[in-house]
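Suppose a colleague, Dr. K., hands you the sequence of a protein chain of 163 amino acids and asks what its three-dimensional shape might be. Before reaching for any lab equipment, you can write down a predicted structure in token form. Begin with the sequence itself:
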Amino acid sequence: GTLDWAAAGLPSGLTYGSSTFAVTGKQTISAQPAFRASVTSNTAATNTIVFNSQQYEQGGDNYDPTTGIFTCPVAGLYMFIAQCTTTAGDGAKKIELQKGSDAIGRAMASTASGVNEHQFLPLTVIQQFSANDTVKVVVTSGTIFGSTGGNSQFSQFMGYLLG
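The predicted structure, expressed as tokens, is then:
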């Protein structure tokens, strides 16, 4: 689209001092940092999950598939999603999304003794980050399932700079 300024007043749809602002069309930003990766082998408790199979990245080389760490290239509001599947087994399974070494989000699932099931751990966080902040997913209890081939992408980590 186009943005026109004129001495006669504001563009149509924009009113000074109100929340009215109409925008039509699609805005695209090819350098917007974003990534998605999955894990190909199981990861046990107290370890950073290394989502080593990277399917997508744009806006630089900010996600490291050898360490499982995303480094924010610029300050801004980011959204991170960890979507993990646990290995079959009873007991508690937990993950944390960490900014540096601080937990900023947690997910937990648990099954009764003797119940041998996979559990799904979804976790989404939207938060302000500074340039060079790091983000990772850590297993704090249980084991996260990872696989290749037709069973791949059961456990994924993704992120996107919102603005």
